[in-house]
Amino acid sequence: MSGKTYLSDIDFRLLRVFKAVAECGGYAGAELELNIGRSTISTHMSDLETRLGMTLCTRGRGRTAFALTEQGSEVYAALLLLFDDINSFRNRVTSIRSELTGTLRIALPDDWLQFKRFDLAPVIASFRQKAPQVELEVMAHAANEIDFDLLNNRADVAINVINRPHAGLESHFLYRHHTSLYCSEKHPLYSKQNIDADDLRSCELVGASHTVSEVIHHLYNQFPKRAVANHMSGRIIMILSGCYLGFLPDYYAEQWHNSGELKRLDVAGFDYTMDNCVLYRKGARDNPLIDLFTQAVFQTFDIADQATSPTDLITTKHS
């Protein structure tokens, strides 16, 4: 394609279509995301490519046949920055009007409800009292997904464990929790006495597909046989089957441990602690909605508002 590139107001609509196509991996997924027909999406994409003077993606049958071109990948990266700037502009205008409106997207770990110490209900109530016109969108994702939600502008603020440091994110410490290795009452180790590290390594482990620190990576690598469950609900089901061991936060495992359905395997070196923080994109605290939500968290739980350094705060704890 060649010729001059003409951009107009309508291109924002076309760019949103392209963003959905790129993130959904093709037209079929974008059809559900955008709630428009595939033929309409195809027309919009062709129109956008004509306006930009370049081919953005390759098309074929099936999801695997779809791919962004090199230019398409660069346009998508620039598009994320553009939408971020648009959101910043909108939030700045909102703050000038002194009336908080818009949408705040909050990402939380999928096991958050089990953590009784940090009840977010009063945080939400405090935020809504000060910003009744703001629409809240709460999403529950696996811990290894949440950083990408922020970096890819799918979420504005999050509460999550500290993953590997990323220059694009800022974090503020909230709390620390302990994670242990568990088996179910159906597992052979449940009734075994004097369990050692070799007993553990002979078993199959279920865990996340991506570890969030070198410490956890080292622990996972001690198990030659592993299965994958990124979400905590899937992990507990597999552990309760009696076929797998698995690392679980103690607060999450508490109800099954107290009922005797789970046993904590207290072997030295097979547990760890994790720090949890409020996270947002670097510089996003200038967004009045993010700032108000963050303040509500700190005030509700009486925590000092201090940024953490971008280091890996996950450490082992030897029993």
UniProtKB/TrEMBL annotation:
InterPro entries reported in the protein's UniProt record: LysR_HTH_N, LysR_subst-bd, WH-like_DNA-bd_sf, WH_DNA-bd_sf
Keywords: DNA-binding, Transcription, Transcription regulation
Superkingdom, natural source: Bacteria
Keyword Transcription regulation: yes
Domain HTH lysR-type: 10-67
Residue stretches spanning the membrane: none
Keyword Disulfide bond applies: no
Gene3D superfamilies referenced in this protein's UniProt entry, alphabetically: 3.40.190.290, Winged helix-like DNA-binding domain superfamily/Winged helix DNA-binding domain
SUPFAM superfamilies attached to this UniProt entry: Periplasmic binding protein-like II (SSF53850), Winged helix' DNA-binding domain (SSF46785)
GO MF term set: DNA-binding transcription factor activity; transcription cis-regulatory region binding
Entry-linked PANTHER family: HTH-TYPE TRANSCRIPTIONAL ACTIVATOR BAUR (PTHR30126:SF98), HTH-TYPE TRANSCRIPTIONAL REGULATOR (PTHR30126)
Record family assignment: Belongs to the LysR transcriptional regulatory family.
Protein name (Swiss-Prot/TrEMBL): LysR family transcriptional regulator
